[in-house]
Amino acid sequence: MRQVILYIAASLDGYIARPDGSIDWLEDETYRLEGEDYGYNSFQQAIDTTLMGNSTYKVVKGMEMPFPYPDKTNYVFTRSSHPEAAFVKFVQEDPVSFVKQLKKQEGKDIWLIGGGQLNMQLLNARLVDEMIITFVPLILGRGIPLFASGVSEKMLKVQDVATYRNGFVQVKFKL
Ligand SMILES: NC(=O)c1ccc[n+]([C@@H]2O[C@H](COP(=O)([O-])OP(=O)(O)OC[C@H]3O[C@@H](n4cnc5c(N)ncnc54)[C@H](OP(=O)(O)O)[C@@H]3O)[C@@H](O)[C@H]2O)c1
Q1: Which pLDDT value is given to residue 173?
Q2: What is the distance of C-alpha 74 from the center of its chain?
Q3: CB of 49 closer than 6 A to ligand 1?
Q4: Using CA positions, which residue lies closest to atom 25 of ligand 1?
């Protein structure tokens, strides 16, 4: 069965964005490593579908660049109805039942982009198979958590750890 993989970056204190949703700290000059993509391109080869909460979609859409995943099937979860939009399909169904069905379909692996609300619901429903989390050596102090409030306690297996010269540490967890 195709796997659901959370591939995401977080601060040391477990935030994925500032309280206003910004992720400028990820692109900070201090962390620039010429030619390093932290496995992003090879990961992209393995997936054909993405999953996003609507808050994450709004951040992606607001970035000053063309939509970054035009060749993927992109599902955006929302509780309200939206007019059709380029590159994405809005899903008003419960993410848990939707992803259960999606995993049964033929296809490559599925990238859970985030954010924290979607991560929490899919993790609690045991629908996440792997997490590749790149920890940025930074304490934000406040922000949007990697897993929203309500996430269940869970023990994880660490499959791999990669360290980068800029201090990024990428941990691959199997669930
Ligand atoms: N650091 C990184 O690598 C990274 C990666 C991804 C995201 N992020 C950040 O994460 C932040 C967003 O995270 P978040 O936790 O606030 O929100 P989120 O999980 O991205 O999206 C939450 C939204 O998803 C929809 N939703 C949630 N549960 C649902 C359900 N059961 N049924 C239908 N729709 C549902 C709702 O949309 P409606 O309000 O439309 O109903 C809800 O407001 C952004 O700032 C983004 O930049 C960072």
Answers
A1: 98
A2: 12
A3: no
A4: 78
What is 32-90 written as a DSSP string? Answer: --TT--TTHHHHHHHEEEEEEEHHHHHHHHHSSSS-S-TTSEEEEE-SS----BTTEEE
The closest-lying atom of ligand 1 relative to the alpha carbon of residue 16 is 1
According to the model, what pLDDT value does residue 39 have?
A: 97
Domain edges within the chain: 4-26+35-174
- Residue nearest to ligand 1 atom 40, measured at CA: 78
pLDDT of residue 142: 98
Residue 6's pLDDT is what?
A: 98
pLDDT for residue 151: 98
Candidates 22, 43, 54, 131: which one to mutate for ligand 1, based on the most atoms within 8 Å of Cβ? 54
Q: What is the dihedral of CA 72, 76, 23, 18, to 10 degrees?
A: -160
Ligand 1 and 36: CB distance under 6 A: no
pLDDT in tens, 52-84: 999 999 999 999 899 999 999 999 999 999 999
Region 112-122: mean pLDDT is 98
Looking at 3.40.190.10, 3.40.430.10, 3.30.470.20, 3.30.43.10, the CATH number of the domain 4-26+35-174 comes to: 3.40.430.10
